[in-house]
Design a protein that fits this description.
Elements (H helix, E strand, L loop, with lengths): L1 H18 L1 H7 L4 H22 L2 E6 L12 E5 L6 H8 L4 E4 L8 H8 L2 E3 L4 H17 L3 E3 L18 H8 L3 E8 L10 E7 L11 H38 L2
Parallel strand pairs: 1-7, 2-5, 2-6, 3-4, 3-5
Antiparallel strand pairs: 6-7
Helix pairs in contact: 1-3, 2-3, 2-5, 3-4, 3-5, 7-8
């Protein structure tokens, strides 16, 4: 499996060079709104191909309503299970991400992501977090919506963390920016298996005007992520169980 994973990662870099590098250089001289527009579809196509390379069988629901009016002024929040979460989401709705500066070590992809509008921060520097929060609000107002993994790091248990980082969700309430909750289930197994089933669900946006305080708003947003995760988990387990028992049922006929 290590050999297959290494081959898949090599193909990933090759695809990045073929699909992302030229559009990124073309977009680089322009201002951010146009940069983001130029990089949107190359990133979506690249991410779609990665799903094929890594053998992902993706079931997605609700991403259809993340187009049009949600192009700006919305924050997308999701639980975080795997490095694959980012391309999976980009293959559905290709918006920039907020992430940690460590991703700068990824060749080509990090450069193209920065051109496309990703915002990176130093997790050890509270002031840098505040800088990115301010920049994120401006980007959501003027350029496009943005993805965020509020947990900060990938879950070690496979379950959403009970207490994510609230900062940018609080800021969204203060700035009257809607939050779209997203749940991902199954992606933590992608690097360990030849094929993997993954489920993603986008919820309807939660609006700050419906909540009297930033704390209530943030809690409701994250609770929605957790509820949708449990729904996906139940659906996946039911499907897997049904597939598992079907041969025994068939053999009895």
């Amino acid at each position: 499996m290590k050999i297959i994973t290494g081959l898949r990662l090599a193909i990933t870099l090759l695809l990045a060079a073929l699909i992302l590098l030229v559009p990124a250089w073309i977009a680089l001289p322009f201002r951010q709104p146009l940069r983001t527009r130029i990089m949107t579809y190359p990133f979506q196509f690249f991410s779609y191909l990665l799903g094929w390379v890594f053998g992902v069988r993706l079931t997605a629901d609700g991403h259809q309503h993340t187009r049009g009016a949600l192009m700006k002024n919305h924050l997308f929040i999701s639980n975080h299970l795997s490095l694959a979460d980012t391309p999976l989401l980009l293959s559905l709705s290709p918006y920039p991400f907020i992430g940690k500066k460590e991703v700068l070590s990824v060749p080509i992809i990090a450069f193209a992501g920065n051109v496309g509008g990703n915002l990176l921060f130093d997790r050890k520097d509270p002031e840098d977090r505040k800088r990115v929060q301010r920049a994120a609000v401006q980007r959501m107002r003027e350029v496009s919506s943005i993805y965020l993994f509020p947990e900060g790091t990938r879950s070690k248990t496979g379950e959403p963390k009970p207490e994510p980082h609230w900062g940018l969700i609080w800021t969204a309430w203060q700035e009257n920016i809607g939050v779209v909750p997203i749940a991902i289930f199954g992606s933590e197994k992608i690097l360990e298996q030849l094929t993997t089933r993954v489920w993603i669900k986008y919820g309807q946006p939660l609006l700050p005007a419906d909540f009297p305080t930033k704390e209530q708003f943030a809690t409701a947003c994250w609770q929605r992520v957790c509820v949708m995760f449990e729904e996906l988990k139940t659906s996946a387990e039911t499907l897997i169980s049904g597939v598992a028992v079907r041969p025994a049922q068939d053999s009895g006929q």
